[in-house]
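User: Assemble these into one structure.

Assistant: Restating your components, then the assembled model:
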Amino acid sequence: MAETMLKVEGLKRYFDVSPPWLNRVLDGSGRRVVHAVDGVSFSIERGETFSLVGESGCGKSTVARLVVGLYDPSGGQITFEGADLSGAAARRKHGDKQSRMQMIFQDPYASLNPRWRVGRIIAEPIRFKKLIQGGDKIKARVGELLSLVGLSPADADKFPHEFSGGQRQRISIARALAGQPEFLVCDEPTSALDVSVQAQILNLMAELQAELGLTYLFISHNLAVVHHVSDKVGVMYLGRLVEWAETRTLFGRPLHPYTRMLLDAIPDLDMSGRSRTPVAGEVPSPINPPSGCSFHPRCPLANERCKREVPQSLTVPGGAVACHAVQEGRLPPWHGGTVAAAE
Amino acid sequence: MIARLSDGLRRALDSDIFYSFRNSPLTILSAVVTLIFFIGAFFSPWLAPHNPFDVATLNLMDAFTPPVWLPEGNPIYPIGTDDQGRDLLSAIMYGTRVSLVVGFCSVAFAMVLGVSLGLISGYFGGMVDSVIMRVADVQLTFPAILIALLLDGVVRGLMGTEQHDNLALMVLVFSIGLSYWVQYARTVRGSVLVERNKEYVQAARVIGLPSVLIMIRHVLPNVLGPVLVIATINLALAVITEATLSFLGVGLPPTQPSLGTLIRIGNGFLFSGEWWITVFPGIALAVFVLAVNLLGDWLRDALNPRLR
């Protein structure tokens, strides 16, 4: 059994979206709280890629931000390399552990300071953590990092706006690597890029993982990308992790009705002409989530119990699933077959 | 280093801003006028034909000399003299210098105060933000001149008129600066609210940079564009406010006359026929303020991507 790098238990994050105090008093309305992440547990082993997928607004990006400490959790535990990192104070105490994590962001046009030269952007973690001393040595290291991500060391003197989206994402990766991380949180790193460029960035990330022994937490809504890069996949719905499993298991034998619905929605050359089940309904508002299993209004298998009771996570071979239908054995067999479609 | 500088210069000459500058004759004219005022004011001890503060050179017999094109004009006083026999042109140059010093210092003071409070307010949010912004809201309900008058009066009451005269310049800078910081704070806060959620700021947080460094290194440079425009327009406003205060007699004393003081002194002689004593400083003030305002307007348009 490989060493566990990151362990997340019962992670919660609520956002207060109430109107200002005066309006609440005048309207007589109460506080309104968004349960962006509501009790998510998973663990990631060293050297593997764990992906979180789900529709927009399901809380996957919030999980990423909680893990790197951009948000403080409202509840639950984050353990990284054995150190408890839940909360700002704990993170300050374990500064060395915290600095082993870096993040790659979604929008390569917003993630680089437009007024800084690329060299300075990449050197910032090196300078701040004093990893290398001396201007010439830092410059050499920046050049090295730029070559590592497939750019030229001479690009260090340019500004971000002189680069394309894919190149900017490479710069973003170089900056993340400059801090000598072991664990990278990638928040939809390819969703703002062209398809051909997406593949280049994904291949670069895979090469870097092999070369530097990195561990990835990969956030995406693109199942094809997730199938390509991950070792394990977690499916999120309305702030909860409804199912996680090893990639092959999840795409081959999905259990949760929501996972099945997502897989059914992938377009497939083999089934062209056949009608396919579209993803039905909208994601309900996380301010007033449905009672019981939050998926029940869209679920073909929902019964009375699903409306009442929140399903607990049930360990199955190679993963876990939170569904009453699975527990009660009412789950119809999976028609199987769309694995190839994902590639 | 030199390569970087020349690179920067080439960039500046290539830029959209310089292009729009070259293509606006009005802007070039106002830039030239502003520059003439700056040079005339800051080099007045060397450029001015007389020293209006050197009592030894003053000749009371020359008092009330009209401009040179009038019958009694004297060519050594091109636009006449005041009641003390001081050369008006020199007095205006020295006075503009005082006005500009007050203007620049109070704009700098207001800018530092407003930008810092705006940054803190926008970046930290919550209670801090509420307190700072409510103070700003309250202050906005009073006209700037009223705040300046009030502060000036308080200081005068505390220190007595004589001491006040020595510190008049500082008091003016303080009270004008304090009445204009709100604009900077609000503008900066607005931009910070946008910038702080951008991913480059979050990236800096993930690296582990403390908030103060993130604000200074990352957020501040990206919110300074609009501040520059406000500062330019506020320079004109500050000069006018200073002139108003001096005209009302609460600004600079006659021993240290600014443009406003000159206009006030001349105002007393307007009806006895010596109009030039008040009209020329007035024209100087109006032209300078107009030129700076036009520059500010151009800067605002040039920096606004939607108007390009």
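Residues 338-343 of chain A have pLDDT under 50 and may be disordered.
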